[in-house]
Design a protein that fits this description.
Structural class: mainly alpha
Strand content: under 5%
Number of helices: 10
Number of strands: 0
Shape: elongated
């Protein structure tokens, strides 16, 4: 009974600490959005208008001491970080590539497009709430179908990590590895996700569902601005943001809780911190 209580305490502590870091991560992401850009369509109606083909974001400032490296070989540091990234990225992408992977996870659920919030509210008042919910579901289903594309892209970025990257990540903040992946894979992920999102949106009838909602809303006498957002860009950007949130969650777990260090090398490298 005593051991059982200890295990419960460890998991509870991990959950609380992880949530604290995830709350901080959201702030870090919001700051980084000014420098980490995602490519998107050239349409004038693009929901995410602040985009570019370049990805130049930087991770949050370092919080750990470089002294942690003194007892580790370069090979251990590099491979340990690669193992951690592989574990976190694989688990995150697999957990999203299932039914309700996005939709029933409040951390990453893709909401009705924010620019169309008034539209959703008005349609709900008119009794179209079920159709609004059905459309939102199609966005999440589309992201879930595309999530499988992340694994090989992450793998290539992890293989390409050099020792300087590894040392900087190890002695950086609790989400340094996540920001490394985001910096090195975001453009490739967008390019890979986007066509799969487009196909999934079509397969899930998202486009037709949106057209139906937009028609009703645009015909209301109170509607001043007609809406026609770029659903592909919006869903792709939100899907990628959710993916990195879960990668960060896995990184926080590995750094803060020995239970998540599943190999001897992970225990050695992160135990040194």
């Amino acid at each position: 009974m005593k051991n059982y209580c200890i295990v419960l305490f460890v998991f509870f502590t991990s959950s609380v600490m992880g949530q604290i870091n995830l709350n901080k991560l959201e702030g870090d992401f919001n700051k980084a959005e000014k420098t980490i850009k995602t490519p998107s369509s050239n349409t004038n109606n693009n929901i995410n208008s602040n985009t570019t083909n370049q990805n130049t974001g930087t991770p949050p400032p370092s919080t750990n001491s470089g002294a942690a490296l003194s007892s580790l070989s370069d090979g251990d540091v590099a491979q340990g970080l690669k193992d951690a990234l592989t574990q976190g990225a694989t688990k995150a992408s697999q957990s999203l590539n299932v039914v309700d992977g996005y939709y029933k996870n409040p951390l990453v659920k893709i909401p009705f497009p924010p620019e169309a919030a008034n539209m959703a509210n008005e349609l709900r008042k008119l009794g179209f709430g079920a159709k609004v919910d059905a459309f939102e579901l199609t966005l999440n289903r589309s992201a879930e179908q595309a999530a499988i594309e992340a694994a090989p892209i992450f793998k290539n970025a992890i293989i390409g990590m050099n020792i300087n990257d590894a040392k900087s990540i190890l002695t950086g903040s609790d989400t340094s590895a996540t920001f490394y992946l985001r910096r090195t894979t975001n453009s490739s992920l967008y390019a890979s996700f986007s066509p799969h999102i487009q196909k999934a949106l079509n397969d899930n009838s998202a486009t037709s569902k949106w057209a139906e909602l937009a028609k009703v809303y645009n015909e209301l006498p109170t509607t001043r601005k007609k809406l026609n957002p770029d659903l592909i860009a919006y869903t792709t950007n939100m899907a990628l943001k959710g993916l990195f949130v879960l990668v960060a969650q896995e990184e926080v777990n590995i750094r803060q809780n020995p239970i998540f260090r599943t190999t001897d090398l992970l225990k050695k490298v992160f135990g040194s911190l």
